[in-house]
Amino acid sequence: MDEKKLYDYNIDETFDLFLLIKSAIVRVAKNGKKFIAFTFQDKSGQMDGKYWDANEADIEKYQGGTVVKVSGKRELYQGNPQIRLFHMRLTNAGEPDKAEQFIEKAPIKKEDMMEEINETVFEITNANWNRIVRYLLNKYQKEYFQAPAAKRFHHAFYGGLAFHTVSMLRLAKSITAQYEEIDHSLLYAGVILHDLGKVMELTGPVSTEYTLEGNLVGHIVLVDEEITKACQALKINDKIEDVTLLKHMILAHHGKLDFGSPVVPKLREAEILYHIDHLDATINMLNNTLNRTEPGTFSERIFGLDNRSFYKPNTNRLSNEKEEESDTLF
Amino acid sequence: MDEKKLYDYNIDETFDLFLLIKSAIVRVAKNGKKFIAFTFQDKSGQMDGKYWDANEADIEKYQGGTVVKVSGKRELYQGNPQIRLFHMRLTNAGEPDKAEQFIEKAPIKKEDMMEEINETVFEITNANWNRIVRYLLNKYQKEYFQAPAAKRFHHAFYGGLAFHTVSMLRLAKSITAQYEEIDHSLLYAGVILHDLGKVMELTGPVSTEYTLEGNLVGHIVLVDEEITKACQALKINDKIEDVTLLKHMILAHHGKLDFGSPVVPKLREAEILYHIDHLDATINMLNNTLNRTEPGTFSERIFGLDNRSFYKPNTNRLSNEKEEESDTLF
Amino acid sequence: MDEKKLYDYNIDETFDLFLLIKSAIVRVAKNGKKFIAFTFQDKSGQMDGKYWDANEADIEKYQGGTVVKVSGKRELYQGNPQIRLFHMRLTNAGEPDKAEQFIEKAPIKKEDMMEEINETVFEITNANWNRIVRYLLNKYQKEYFQAPAAKRFHHAFYGGLAFHTVSMLRLAKSITAQYEEIDHSLLYAGVILHDLGKVMELTGPVSTEYTLEGNLVGHIVLVDEEITKACQALKINDKIEDVTLLKHMILAHHGKLDFGSPVVPKLREAEILYHIDHLDATINMLNNTLNRTEPGTFSERIFGLDNRSFYKPNTNRLSNEKEEESDTLF
Amino acid sequence: MDEKKLYDYNIDETFDLFLLIKSAIVRVAKNGKKFIAFTFQDKSGQMDGKYWDANEADIEKYQGGTVVKVSGKRELYQGNPQIRLFHMRLTNAGEPDKAEQFIEKAPIKKEDMMEEINETVFEITNANWNRIVRYLLNKYQKEYFQAPAAKRFHHAFYGGLAFHTVSMLRLAKSITAQYEEIDHSLLYAGVILHDLGKVMELTGPVSTEYTLEGNLVGHIVLVDEEITKACQALKINDKIEDVTLLKHMILAHHGKLDFGSPVVPKLREAEILYHIDHLDATINMLNNTLNRTEPGTFSERIFGLDNRSFYKPNTNRLSNEKEEESDTLF
Amino acid sequence: MDEKKLYDYNIDETFDLFLLIKSAIVRVAKNGKKFIAFTFQDKSGQMDGKYWDANEADIEKYQGGTVVKVSGKRELYQGNPQIRLFHMRLTNAGEPDKAEQFIEKAPIKKEDMMEEINETVFEITNANWNRIVRYLLNKYQKEYFQAPAAKRFHHAFYGGLAFHTVSMLRLAKSITAQYEEIDHSLLYAGVILHDLGKVMELTGPVSTEYTLEGNLVGHIVLVDEEITKACQALKINDKIEDVTLLKHMILAHHGKLDFGSPVVPKLREAEILYHIDHLDATINMLNNTLNRTEPGTFSERIFGLDNRSFYKPNTNRLSNEKEEESDTLF
Amino acid sequence: MDEKKLYDYNIDETFDLFLLIKSAIVRVAKNGKKFIAFTFQDKSGQMDGKYWDANEADIEKYQGGTVVKVSGKRELYQGNPQIRLFHMRLTNAGEPDKAEQFIEKAPIKKEDMMEEINETVFEITNANWNRIVRYLLNKYQKEYFQAPAAKRFHHAFYGGLAFHTVSMLRLAKSITAQYEEIDHSLLYAGVILHDLGKVMELTGPVSTEYTLEGNLVGHIVLVDEEITKACQALKINDKIEDVTLLKHMILAHHGKLDFGSPVVPKLREAEILYHIDHLDATINMLNNTLNRTEPGTFSERIFGLDNRSFYKPNTNRLSNEKEEESDTLF
Question: Where is each HD domain found (chains A, B, C, D, E, F) (predicted)?
């Protein structure tokens, strides 16, 4: 197996790679024949490619979640990377065939994320919040560290939910250190649980889709239900203020009714949670996109940021070396 | 005790009545002295009145929920009815002093509403929905038939929640009779449970206020939690489609994210539930307001209807007698 | 002639059918050659099909409103039904060639709709409204029972306007029976006339398009003009309150300025007319779409319902049989 | 009778004047007594004043539309001019008592406006439009030159409708002279008729209120009805394109659905009519307000201009004398 | 060289012409091969055409700004004019090859526009405004008379900025003549400078694109910077009211925050400038589009006018001859 | 002089204090007499109080910015603190009379803020940004450390601008430490300069009002002008990318056109600057308000946060002590 990954190849370079089919959509071309619009992926990222004149057997064989051997050429189509397919087949025995081997993962190891979350739970000094957070992390331990944080927009990879959470916890800790009035226990508990419902809303990190309850109930209310059940299991009266506050953190974390929260933030910590969530998702989308943009040009439009296109400056200004000649200002 | 009620008196007529203080707000007048802005009520309705130069003892005595004996005159202030207070005192032993005796009630007897809802439950032929509806009606039987449907806008009276529900069930039955594709079991279950959370969101029919969980969680999600707990009590798997559909009915019943639903309707029956709820509330607000409007004039503005003012036609066109001379048209 | 209709064929089944060309749009393919994007229809519904490499003679022959004999195969294209065309010709003498024979019709017979509307007119006890309604129904009797209620969204078929009206009258009657304060004469007159302008706004039930006055004046104002002319013909003073109220019913029936009403509803009956119209159109769109959706899947997006996709539940819950074991609840 | 008018007096100067009561609203003061909030006017403008401790006889006597003799002082209240009332009485025989003598009028004489409109009608070379315009100007000749153009916002004075029309015609002529593609006949006909409905929508120039048909039908549709009736009287087929175009000019002249037009402009001339109307109303509101603003300060907020406050520059820059030293630029 | 221009050819007529490539976008067809989507232009206008099966040499040769010799046929594609390409080559020595020879130009000669602007500058009697306007017109004299007023929407041609300015000045003069309260010096200075920033925001009249500072700073603020620099060069204190007023004219000229102005108009003249700009751009877009529309049909949708489609009336009503028989109206 | 400050007194306690008149607005009471609505302040905060029956001498004497000796009582009016005035006089010689002694100040010393900003400037390693930032901080050194950050909403106190900046720099440093792709030089330069224009937009920390250029140009564009002038002074070409990027940071920092930015963020660092600014202002408003709210109640509405009311939880959950019994989670 070739050690080079998909995005290691240059434009117009040919390759011969094992790739995971992330999605396969059958369409009909203007000439009346069917073709398959593939999205392939390996750990270096995702790339589209079209398979022309597909017959029924092809359609049957090459479905989302399948690993295939692909010969092709990396091209540029309307400014986006694309695969020109030469040949494609299913894998043989002995060849890599596990979807998990091909999907992007969080840039931090699962064990490190677990430890970082674990340490934070110790800082949740309110007993009710501490117990509910522990209970739910235990209940969904496996899924929590596998799930993506979204189907598409941000942190849409294996472990994305946990990575998004860890990243938000770091922001939360900077903020509580700076503004001492904030109830850090409530904020950390809110951060850890706010997107737990993604575990139920989405089908998982491979070929991610919405589940029925994801569609009809939504991840926000699904967490509220989990807190309700946790209280029953832990014999915590779910009508006490502690529980109401924690539920509000999750319910209000989209910040506005229009964004799907059934209530707007009415707690200082709920308002801050909304900001942190928004900020981390924004930076993740910006970095993902600008990493694929040439310096001195504008990026593709980012759907999650009002469809704006961002400019990547020309020269590397990130020298991070001290300017020697500058004097004290005041 | 006088048998005439507050709204039986004409403008500029004096009266001597037992009234319930619905709310009492202390303010400071331009002259620096305190006054109490009262809202009084009896079964005929509510009316405001100001108590000038209030001392601390007055403020202590005359609080929301108290029954008082009031001498005064009915006046008109900027087009709204108002009480000019002459004298006021607490009740003596033997005089009426129960808040319940003074508040507006649903125009149908509790027993009749119970029977009508009961009969409808029989028509919910899906076993899961039937069991959940029964369980929750039993659990909240007392509060369900006392609670108002809102703090202010529509059906804001004792038994208002149940009356609103019964009225919506009648609409729902007309509609399912007319459009046979509708799943009537799902629609009826949705109607019965959709506002059950008002029982927890509001403090009750006297001096109605929002509770903390009403404010921070809201009546929509509170019903979802109740369904979650009902499933646990009834040992119904809360991940089956039946339960997801029923939860969606409640969660989507405000119709739009902007109106506080965390998900928009994605089931035919959920969309219809939203329409029925909106229609019954609208007619209730219109009737309440137009009952207080003179023919040939425009009503006061109705907050719940985009602050519109409605015209009450001049002559009584509701003769409901057949026109004799008309011939068959086609 | 084959008795099976277009939608009686299964996917991938071939057929040989007389069909009506509903619309024929000429486009240019990527290869620079022209093709015709057809929409065919018979009474079972509409289906698209592309005619490749069309020459000028083809374009001339195969225009909207023409009946043709089509050999083809029913296929599925991106989830939507589609015709793969094999052969196509004009009809010969003796073969069916009337557009009317191929278009969808209201599910109720014209005579039954006429009778139902006729009976309702008897219930309009206000003489002025009664006379205006009769006059206009007589004037447009033929068109009223042919016109569709819309070009696309709802009740877009032969007799759709009348069927939509009858359906709304049934809702109106349920509602007036339930809420007695409503002036039923005004509401029924409003229902019958509200969309009469479709008769002028649209070109008719075959190859429906907007007329110039449909575009520049619109069906709402067109009805207002008709009432104005009816008053002149009937020698009714068009400045009396009766006439103003009736005109308002029609002018306000879209409910909001944004939806094209020049005034918002300011009469109870006008507000209710808006709700009834909206509800009947909504249910019609939902039923049309869900009839074409597989159980357990989401429908195509419905443009007239904020582009939402609706879920069709998996199992048949419409058993409508009584549950035997349930006890009285209260 | 004093020849000085209300606005000729300085702040803190006392006066003794005949004034017209434009409106008289009865309110109740904090001390429980009634007062009348008057708006007085003479030809110099309008000013508010409060009449404290009003008894029923006062309320009866001093109603909108009555001329009174007022002794008072001009004051400034929260930046707005106000009358401090000393004494007030009804007029005696022989004293001025006609409302018309006290209301603001258009700054052009009625005869000059008639002549200017008359000349413009000659330029409407399309026979149908010419005849309809003539017919309606004749029909409403008297009211057209008396009516205000609005209840409050702009041109709210005797003859305001005609003056607004004349002012717009001047703009229209500049524009048609500059852009030759415009159909000037259509534009002029549209300008002359666009606000004719104000004649029916409002009660007239004294104590202006909305009529019932103003409220329920609105001035836009009222003109459409008048065109419909004019066609009948003139035996013009109201289905020909000429008539549809003219009706569209009026129906679309508010420019957006949100502003109460039932259709948006779909003719070049309709779009331009909207701009001209908007521009003339804007300049009128700006001039009215800035005439009352001190140089170097911000004006009161203008409701009709998004509640904005405008700055009146400090020094007089309107010298309009040529700068002597400037050379030719290019 | 053929003297006929592109738009002089009829549909389906073949031609052999020198044309300028305005833009050339490389795409990949469904068959996997690249093609170039060209926009060609000469002084008669712009037309699209596709070049199939383009190889790398073609892509290299045929870029935006290049003049080419084209053999082709004018066609109609979905209602829009289009070129069917037969053959295409670069120009030879001696053949026309200057982009400037092929681009649309303002319909007024540069010298006439200069003179008209020059004369207007004399009417700016405020010395500070006069000097700033002169300074900036001198500084950008060349670019000011070349630049387009926009990339696409209106006045998108060589000299478009100056022509748009001249056209607005004519409107401004009509308006100041009619409403005498307006400070004409301020208005004219505002008109002349309002879009000067287009000179920096756009790359120029050939293959117009946004510059980096056009994208990140925008033409509105760029003018403000130029005024700041002009004040420094002319030693005018940029904190005096004169300068603040002039800067406000430019900053507020888009009329609303949503349209990119950092402040809303707070001067009478700024509000009027916004109207004039909007009106001239609107008429320009309408005329451009309706010139290409057949009488009796609706135009293509105009992006800059809320995507509306406009109707071009059937018959020529622009006779501009006096109607003989009409009498004086009043 | 009393060492106790205004907010050290309890409700209903009397006091005798030197206070600064922050603002004094003259109004007319219902009885026709004038009164002055004062806002007083000392370092503990601001409180309103009304001065009844004010004569012209009082109005003359007691204006904004004056220090006075006040005898009064602290009261509660509609939930807000208020002063009941007994007596009031100007200060005598030898008594405190400097406004600066009475206004709220940033909670960090000026010298510490200077040092913190100074150190950050060293980290701006891009020479152009470093020089521009230094130049402008030097130019406005005095005002920068006195100015408030707003007239009302957040950081509305002496030194508020600098404190807001320092607080944002701390957030910026946490974020650049966490997300390494961010250009920290650009972000820090943007933070330091983003609100520098407040120095010109507002009149200063005492009796803060908008200046004319604050109103007509606004603080965003005022900074852009300062960068333009700084480039001229420093002989930096203001057309290079470095300068364009820095200008964009300031211009885009309100995040949306609707919020007054003439361009939306199109640089990663500009988007982040918007988030940091929004977050710091939000926390400042929340803390200010919740500091004045009783535990277990809802706060007053916060204008700058969509007029929302926030709940202050009942019990002190900010124990910040480790929970002893909790075990490691994973």
Answer: 161-282
